[in-house]
Amino acid sequence: MKHFLTGVATGLAIAYLIAPHSGKNTRNQLATAVNNQKVDLEEQWLRIESQWEKTVEQVRHLIDTIKSFAP
Question: 14-31 burial string, b = 16+ CB within 10 Å, else e?
Answer without folding.
Answer: eeeeeeeeeeeeeeeeee
